[in-house]
Hints:
The complex is a heterodimer.
Chain A: E1 11-16, H1 25-33, E2 53-58, E3 68-73, E4 92-94, E5 101-103, H2 113-117, E6 124-125, E7 152-153, H3 159-171, H4 185-189, E8 195-199, H5 206-211, E9 216-217, E10 229-232, H6 236-240
Parallel strand pairs in A: 1-10
Antiparallel strand pairs in A: 1-8, 2-3, 4-5, 6-7, 9-10
Chain B: H1 15-42, H2 57-68, H3 70-81, H4 88-112, H5 121-124, H6 131-155, H7 164-200, E1 212-213, E2 216-217, H8 218-246, H9 253-288, H10 304-323, H11 325-328, H12 331-358, H13 374-397, H14 404-407
Amino acid sequence: MESAETTRARFAMVIDLDRCNGCGACATACAVENNVPPARPSANERTGLTWQRVYRASNGRQFPENRSVYFPVSCQQCEHPPCVSVCPQNAVDVSPETGVVSQIPVRCLGCRYCMTACPYHARYFNWFDPKWPDGMETTLNPDVSVRMRGVVEKCNFCHSRWQAAKAKAAAAGKRDLDPADYVPACVEACPEKAIVFGNLDDPRSGVAKSAKSANAFRLLEKLGTEPKVFYRSDRAWVRRLADADVAVQEKEATRG
Amino acid sequence: MDSSLILRGVRRCSTKRFLAWLAPWAVMAGIGVFAIGLCLVKGLNQTNMDNRFAFGLWIFLDLAVIALGAGAFFTGFLLYILRRDELRAVINSAVVLGFICYSGAVLVLAVDVGQPLRAWFTFWHPNVHSMLTEVTFCITVYLTVLAIEYLPIVLKNRQLRKVPSFLVFEGELHKLMPVLAAVGTFLSFFHQGSLGGLYGVLQGRPFAFRDGFAIWPTTFFLFILSAIATGPAFVLLTTSIVSKISGARLVRHGVYELLAKISGWLLIIYVGLKSVDTIVWLNQTAPRSGINPSQFYAWQPFGTWVLIVEIVLLGLVPALIFMSPARRRSLPWLLTGSVLACLGVALNRLVMTIQTLAVPTLKFEPFMTYWPSWQEVATFLFVIAYGVILYSLSFRYLRLFPQEREMQKY
């Protein structure tokens, strides 16, 4: 019997930094969608959980030439992910169907070696037991498992939404997903429509076109990790921030 | 009170004095147990580690004690494989030190991971591409080897050897020693290397990433070399400290000289290779990753002074001390050299663990620092207290230094 499976895809996103206003809606939507617990009172900015962190950077000049940009940074879904080969117990998985790098929390030892391997600081450890204020458990997404204390977690391009889209396509007897059925929460929530998501292998997709545009770039490209999260900006100084060699440091302004 | 357990012909302090010596260490261990309990029950939020400093004091401790514990396998290798019989004088002590270092490291690792009960997963579905898998396998097996090597030393206790079957068992185990030494050497070479490889393979961390040969980055070889170079120095250092505290002459000075000589030659080779590695890394490997290497040392307190202290003051200087026959005849020089060499390997492990994580990778991210919480420090001190207590008991009741009885005649 022929099963209704999707064909191979390489899901990716392009974030237009000239549109991003740093509102943090992407980070909030992500937390709600993926059952990321609220920060505990004793947590700080470095021990809290967020799969999407919004950094602020500037061009380093004085007023009135000073300009800012916001960088939403989640797991960069690398083609050559440095976190996969280091995990001692195969708790980091790359899906051959989607190219998405995902964490298997129930297998994770919590050694945090993957976190030291990730140059994008996109992996987060559950330093605390996940806890929701009374009554707020009812808002949990039933399609996403809650992670336990002591394991690592990160963005997986809303895996549950991909599964739902796959199930919908299968029910309709189709092999391919309808692109409109698989949209991660951050993409959906962005009021500026700054994030384009889709299959990089589909030349007709918006993401494939944007990723090839002249002003598209990726973070720390020289490391050879080949991220599938692209950024674009018409401003040259913003594009230069992607390289490690630019001496501009700014404290992050917005956190999810 | 416990004189019937103490080896004949050696002097040991009174039971009361011995207990008074143990008491502060026991208190330190007790505080450590409390801290460990807090971490296990309440979770790793009890530490000051965070998403950026995912590794901290404990991983540094593991790497440092495992490097110092290399004295166990390397002395065994020199004695049983290369037949340097002079080292029989310290082999028992080296085995106990190795056991303490490795068991301490495994214990701290069990606290350090978020889900200790899942430790067996590494054996059940291992990722054979991970350096950490290799480290886990080798350390577990080698700790078992060390336990088996420790056993005949325990069975030689004055009272235990009265049991005939123990004596036979001990004799049989003794015949196995060269095999165990060979197994220990093989395992140790690999896990010391893999501990270095752990950092060297991090392509996303230009501060740690190194080129190498086949699947092994240069840190793989440098960690092996630095561990076997400082292992003998640590055996020398501990033997002379025990000698000073117990007031007993334990080994002939020639043994110290031999340990220092071995350490010195290995250290000088290490310093040479480490220097070449540093030059290649700063001029080729790091720039290829898109990093200007001056940025590695742009953040205080991690200035270039760290590199100079590590390679020159704590590498070249002890190597030159150990290589000079005149210096080797003087115990104070030997102790100075040993302390510098041991600090050198510890600084190297600290740099690879902490500085690797402190140097920012994303340029819109700030430099961050880390300072351990009291729970982390107390757990660290627990390992030291545990080591001192186990070593003290072993020294009192077991024959750690075969030359001791003979030396007391002089």
